[in-house]
Amino acid sequence: MRRFNSADPTFASAFRAFLDERRGTAPDVDAAVAEIVARVKAEGLAAVLDYSRRFDRADLDETSIRVTPDEIAAGVAACSPDVREAIAFAARRIRAYHARQRPADAWFKDDEGVELGWRWTPLDAVGLYVPGGRAAYPSTVLMNAVPASAAGVSRIAMVTPPGRLEPVVLAAAHEAGVTEIWRVGGAQGVAALAYGAGPIAPVDKIVGPGNAYVTAAKRRLYGVVGIDALAGPSEIVVVADADNDPEWIAADLLSQAEHDPSSQSILITDSPRFAEAVEQAVTRQVAVLDTGDVAAASWATHGAVILSPLDASPELVDLIAPEHVEFATAQPERLADRVRHAGAIFLGRFTPEAVGDYVAGSNHVLPTSRAARFSSGLSLYDFLKRTSIVKCDASSFARLGPPTATLAVAEGLPAHARSASVRLDDIGEPGIAAQ
User: Fold this and answer.
1) Can 180 be counted among the known catalytic residues?
2) Of these four, 18, 126, 152, 432, which has the most CB atoms within 10 Å of its CB?
3) Domain holding 66: CATH number?
């Protein structure tokens, strides 16, 4: 854990160096991913099944690669009633939040008499990658699939590594509106969604987090399909005054540190005594967490405590551009309203980031690695596309035609100019000869 004091003359350069450190940098996997993607494109299901045997030790075929409706139903039934209700509660809130984002179609006539507008339509098919491994991620399913369903996407195909499918994940997929689930992970799973592989039909966009191979595959396949983002390690900044309980703030910092040793947790406070109390609370809590080893490594390597006047915290937050920021102060809006770069903002002492991960309703798929400077979290808009609509009659075209032809000639595109001029000639308006 690093300590910084904004009053120190070296603070700016030292903190910039801290932010510029690479976190979670994987070995070069692009060459391996390029081979996997090319093979899946060329060989389809045969390549996917071969990689499943090699990487996941899973002997699958065209039939067993798909999770059956009976398996999904059994997974739902295996979840305890309280877990099923929590999933349903979260899904309702996520759906309601994202449904409010729906934009309106428009149609209007402008001053030249041209009719203009736009129309929003959902994507046809979306692929969702859900990681396997040591943890189950029902929240990942909900946060990615529920907005797609709310947008009107008719086909939501989920891929996840072979092995035991956790009932809680199957229950979340059922609740979220996932239409098909495939036992395939890694770069080959992403490639199968992009190109299709046997019974797996291609999709239009791929969302969801994964390891370095999954991220590299999404990067490589962007353009063949759309993608949500290239996710990095989790991040949280907590801006807190001394009136907070140090145990609460320590828990909030560790809520992201426990994700991965490369995660980053930063405390900004104006009280040296409170900072010390939080550090001590972190040490106590790490000792009893099941994820303590991971959280301790994250805090030791990438954590930070910044002593700074709280009034200066918005500028620091903008410099960090974090995935999550909490303002645990008496008047959180006074500071938060000045923040421009953050994936999600949590206001007040009773709004820990953890509620945003699960049940607040807002999306937890957020920009990391300072990408909040230029991008937003996942939303309904990621599953919609906008089509422009233009309609001219003879009168309005008579106004638009001459400048159209003029600009086309200036660009050296005579066919463009002629497509305007021939219409102007026919309606008796002076055009511009195509050069």
Assistant:
1) no
2) 126
3) 3.40.50.1980
* 8 Å CB contact between 223 and 92: no
Q: Which two tokens stand for residue 384?
A: 């919609």
68 burial type by CB count under 10 A (0-12 exposed, 13-18 middle, 19+ buried): exposed
Q: Residue 431 — very low, low, confident or very high, per pLDDT cuts 50/70/90?
A: low
Looking at the fold, whether 87 and 125 belong to one and the same domain comes out as yes
pLDDT band at 434 (very low <50, low <70, confident <90, very high): very low
**Contact predicate 288/281, CB 8 Å:** no
In a domain, 418, yes or no: yes
109, two tokens: 């006539």
For residue 238, the SS3 value is strand
- Which of 302, 324, 341, 364 is catalytic? The answer is 324
Q: Nearest to residue 344, comparing CAs of 336, 207, 302, 262? A: 336
Give the Cα separation of 297 and 262 in Å (integer). Answer: 8
User: 93, 361 in Cβ contact below 8 A?
Assistant: yes
- 222 and 236 together in one domain: no
Q: How far is CA 286 from the centre of its chain?
A: 28
Residues 6+ apart with CB under 8 A from 317: 237, 239, 268, 325, 339, 341, 342
What is the average per-residue pLDDT within 257-272?
A: 96
Residue 350 sits in the same domain as residue 404? no
At 385-415, the pLDDT tens digits run 999 999 999 999 999 999 999 999 999 999 9
DSSP state of 344: E
Maximal CA-CA distance, the chain: 85
126, 153 contact by CB (below 8 A): yes
Range of the domain at 406: 392-426
According to DSSP, residue 362 is labeled: S
Give yes or no: residues 86 and 217 share one domain. Answer: yes
Which among 166, 258, 323, 326 is annotated as catalytic? 323
Residue 324 among the catalytic residues: yes
User: Which residues, other chains included, contact 326 with Cβ-Cβ below 8 Å and sequence gap of 6+?
Assistant: 236, 237, 238, 239, 240, 252, 345, 346, 351, 352, 353
Residue 105 exposure: Cα atoms within 13 Å on the Cβ side = 8
For residue 97, CA distances in Å to 93, 161, 249, 342, 345 come to 6, 30, 27, 19, 16
* Cα separation, 277 vs 272, whole angstroms: 9
